[in-house]
Structure formats: structure tokens, C-alpha cells
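Consider the following input, taken from an annotated entry for DENN domain containing 6A (Rattus norvegicus).
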Amino acid sequence: MALRDQAVFGPGSRGSLDEAGAEGREAAALAAAGVALEDDEEDDGRRGLLRWDGFSAWLHCVCVVGFDLELGQAVEVIYPQHCKLTDKEKTNICYLSFPDSNSGCLGDTQFCFRFRQSSGRRVSLHCLLDEFDKDLPVYLKKDPAYFYGYVYFRQVRDKTLKRGYFQKSLVLISKLPYIHFFHTVLKQIAPEYFEKNEPYLEAACNDVDRWPAPVPGKTLHLPIMGLVMKVRIPTCHDKPGTTQLTQQADTHTSIILPTVHEVDLFRCFCPVFLHSQMLWELVLLGEPLVVMAPSPSESSETVLALVNCISPLKYFSDFRPYFTIHDSEFKEYTTRTQAPPSVILGVTNPFFAKTLQHWPHIIRIGDLKPAGEIPKQVKVKKLKNLKTLDSKPGVYTSYKPYLNRDEEIIKQLQKGVQQKRPSEAQSVILRRYFLELTQSFIIPLERYVASLMPLQKSISPWKSPPQLRQFLPEEFMKTLEKTGPQLTSGIKGDWIGLYRQFLKSPNFDGWFKTRRKEMTHKLEALHLEALCEEDLLLWIQKHTEVETVDLVLKLKNKLKSFFK
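Applying the prediction step yields:
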């Protein structure tokens, strides 16, 4: 594959679609809907922004990837023109934006991929100044090392082309893991783009540049090509499992999104819901996991559903919703010279059935059925039975779950299937089940970690803040007898064994580092508070000038570090 010279267009090539036109379109869309930006929304989203700063708050860039008979996949367009991608990043985007040839995806296909940012890339000023991350739930915070790619791929017969097919992808590159939101945006603009080409894409990007900033907790009205989308990004203060956005339709909006990031959980887990609790354990423990699927849509949705099933706990290992043999990490993740890494991969190429057959846990799924259709439940099978991607669907693993299977949730979901309960309602039930299971597991850990905080009376304004006590696994295990998960969950099994394994996992490491950072910051705040309550003038009178200068310098450094 070679990279074609990309067509780049920017402010100088706007023609009739100039800035004034875009402003008029936005105003017309909002005026037609009767929406006026609230004062604070306008201030947060627009004040002091330079050209494309608004766009950069949501997207890194937009790419168009086409297929050339001589060159193969090639980046044809990158917009806006100042956005930079390294050759390695372009190559990854090229291969990840097209389904494998064996997928046979005719028509329109949407999926998502995630790829590693090139090392040495300069962090943008916008990322450094981004204050919105601190109010996000931990599982929605941006990972500075990765980009997401949201793809709308079209493949249709075209006799005028040598290959006989029109093949092109419109790809949104972003740091934000708002899967449902960006898929909805693409659904609105991609079909029109394929008919009207670059001028339409430029107009859509101008609309995005005028969006308010993605502030968590605020109801945002986002105009896009004559439509208005109403969204709310969750905050870390929201009650898990709830949505704060009203579903009531109004004349202000064309589209109301109850979630920006969640996938259709039941549709993805439907073929394997008998084993959903075992899969929850595998994800919780950061076990190497491969999803083998017939197309990128199925692989990406299933991987994202797996990552989502341990929410509100963040999955701290790497995950690739769609992974190909051309990926820059292919050798790293498929080597047999070391144990498989803690990662979840979604693949479609039959080659992976052989390449990854040494991996301990493989989910082989068939086509995901439309809402209302229920596929046959797959069985847990031995790994040696998996030889090709044509093998029967199943969960191929020798893993023995620590917890007994919860028959109640299975009965509830099966009853929903028999009564033809909508997939959305089934997803709500399954999401609540995973949420309660994760909370039952994490509450004892939260309770123990909170006990590591020093007592407030031990904080002296004239001494360094006291340190957190060390996390001692055996001491924690002893607390489980009286304050373990049995207080909130009726599921029986070897909870202690599950905790022991979890304490060795990347998910525990990431979770504990986050909690320790938060608690250390809290100690610093309490220490500053204690200092503020002291009579400094009285203290100065009792100490030498050298000691006073030393105190002032220490206070200066403390304030600097606290407000970083």
C-alpha cells in the first residue's frame, strides 16, 4: 500500500461555503428549532476561541480513505488542513478504515477502531488546557496515548470503475470515547457526503467548529447540517446507571441522544448471555481476550460491550475494537515468545484463528441479529477445537469462573426473549446487573482504601502532610469476612480467590493509582486548609526571618503543585 498525495482543503478554498455561510446555517438551524444558546453555554464554548479550536475540542481531524487499484487504500483527504498525522498513523488509519476483504460488507457499514498515537507527537495546546476531563467519569477520560477512529464505510457496485465497486470510508479521528454520539453524527453526514463530496464535508466541519465545548453535565445543542442534536456528557458526580437527559421530544431538537458512549449491550451479549458473568470476570481480571467476528461492526461492538461491562470501573488495559494483520502492533500482540498481553482484540481475518490460537480466551461469534431476533446460544468449548474462523461460534477457554452463575439474571433475560421484550429494555436489565455486580465487588475495596487515610487530627499545619497507609492485601482479605460483597450481592462462590487474582491485574493497578492520587490531593487540600486557619502573623513573631522566608517559599511551592 502506498499513501496517495492527500487532497487538503482549508479556509482559502471555501468558495460559496464561506464562514459567513456556515454561521448563517448554524443560526438558521437553531432559529428554526427555537433554540438560543444559554449565556453560560456560549461563554464556555465560544469565548476567546481561535479558528478550529471549537472543532479540536471534539475532533482531531476528518479523513476520507479511498481504494486505488494501483495503490490500495489511500488517505485522499485530511480536514482541516493544519491537522497533522504521521505516516505511521496514516497507514494505520488506511488499513483500519476498510473491512477485511473476506467480510463482504456490501452497502453501508459503521464501526469503530482504536490505535496508538505515534511516539514523539507533540501534545496539542488544547489537550494541555483541557479542563473538562477532571469532571468526567474515569472510564470516559481521554487517554493521551490513543486515538479513536469512527468509520462510515460504503461499498456499492459501480460499473464505471475498473474494480467494479465504489469503496470509500469517511472517518472521524478523535480522542473522545463517545462511540454512540460519533456514530450518530456519521449517520447524519456520511450518506450526503458520498453524494456531494468535499464542499459538503467542509460545511459540516465548519458546523462542528461552532459547537460549544464538550462540558460534562451540561445539556448541549449541537447543530449539524440543518439538524440539531441534543446531548449531555456524563459527570463523575452522576449516579451510575442513570441518564440526566430528558427523553421528551421538543421542537428544539431533531435528535435526542440519551447516551454518548454506550453500545447496545444486550445485542452484543445476546449470543453469549449464558456466559456473561464469566466474561465479566475475564474483563475484570484483564485476561487476554480475542473476539473473532464476521465483520468489523460485530467485532467493534462486542469489544466495546466487553470493556463497558465492568463500568463504572475503568478498563485500564489496551483494547482494539477492530484489529488487522497490518496494524503496527501486530507483531507485538501475536508473538509466541512471551505470554499474550492483557488486551482485548476484535478481529475478522481468518488468519487470526491460527495466529492467536495460543491465546487463552477466544470468543467466536456469528452475525449479530437485528433487534428482536435471538441467535442460538453458544457453548463453552476447549481451545484445541478452534482451528479456523469457520469453526462454530462459541467461547473457547479452559477458564473456571470464581463465582457461581447467577441463574436469576439468565431467567430474566430468557423471559424477555420469550416475551419479545425490546433489545433496549434487555440492555437496561443487563447493564444494571453488571453495574450491581461491579459495585458489589468494588465497594469493599473502596471501604478498605478509605481506611488508609490518616485521621484529620493528625494533620499539622507546620509539618508535611501525613502519608497514606500502605495497601496490605492480607489485611484487606481479613475485612471481607464482615464487610465483603455478601452484604450487597447474593451470588455465591470464591470471592476471595477473585480478589486475589484482581489484585495482580492491570485494572487494580490503574484503579488504585487513581484512588491514591485523589486521596493524596485530598490530604494536600486539608493541609492547606489547616494552614489557612492559622494566625501567620503570630507565628512570624515567634520565628526568625530565615524561618519565615523558608515558610513562604514552601507555601509558594505547595500552592503551585496543588493547582497544577
